[in-house]
Amino acid sequence: MRVLSKLPMVAFAATLFLAFSCQQKAQDTTPQNVVSPEVLAKIKRLGFSTEGVINNNGSYIVERDIMLTEAQLDQGFNNPLLLRAGQEEQYRTTNVVNSNGSRVITVYIDTRFNSTYVNALNDAIGRYNALNLDISFQRVTSSSGADINVRRLNWFLEFFGVLGSAGFPTNGNPYNEILMNGRLQTSYGYNQAGIATVIAHEMGHCIGFRHTDYFDRSISCGGSTNDEGDGGVGAILIPGTPTGASLSAASWMLACSGGGDRQFNADDVTALNWMYKNNF
After folding, report:
1. Where in the sequence is the domain holding 269, given as residue range(s)?
2. CATH code where residue 116 lies
3. Number of domains in the chain
4. Which residue of 183, 212, 258, 263 is surrounded by the most CB atoms within 10 Å?
5. pLDDT tens digits, residue range 96-144?
6. What whole-number distance in Å separates Cα of residue 98 and Cα of residue 95?
């Protein structure tokens, strides 16, 4: 997600520095971020944008905050016929979390994060748990056995400007890692509520949500129309959500944000309830 504020626009996995400005630019090809044509072809075949792909030690951050592993690129997702839903409000991936009617997803945050991050995670968890879904989240004090580990990005990606990244569910389980920039306070001016919004957004990816304005990121990011796919993109309409997307609606899964506190709006709640109440 990019951020629209007094600072230049940045994404949850975009940058304030060098390689990107307010407009997306050509892919960085510094030695630390070499992405082969073969990998880009696989990313494109899955339906994701190939602009600004970041190589993270053999996994790849696409669309500014979505992590794809080598295994996902090689195997694809479970359903090869991924449906595009047109210009609708909420999207999900083919893969979701199997709740079996009631499932607690445990989340651990690395001790390198300060108390503001810990409290922000607690806030993000509280936003989901207040909805009484078939899935709930619980922060745990040990990484062993945790369903999701919140870890700090490496120094290069923090300098590169990545704010946070996560992936999509596999085999009925949430994506097991959220990588967070540990400099959100000092370098970006984020307060606890802003960090909670970043974490909640990445948790959304972990349980299968795509960006609300996936079909046209300019809705929240500005600039020219940017449709990140041309069919078979792995974005499936969530029933009951309205046609179109808007910046004013302030969905928690919009690609860009003002950097402040973005709670679930009414349509977000509809989407979350459809996904995780008596469905999967």
Report:
1. 2-276
2. 3.40.390.10
3. 1
4. 212
5. 999 999 999 999 999 999 999 999 999 999 999 999 999 999 999 999 9
6. 9
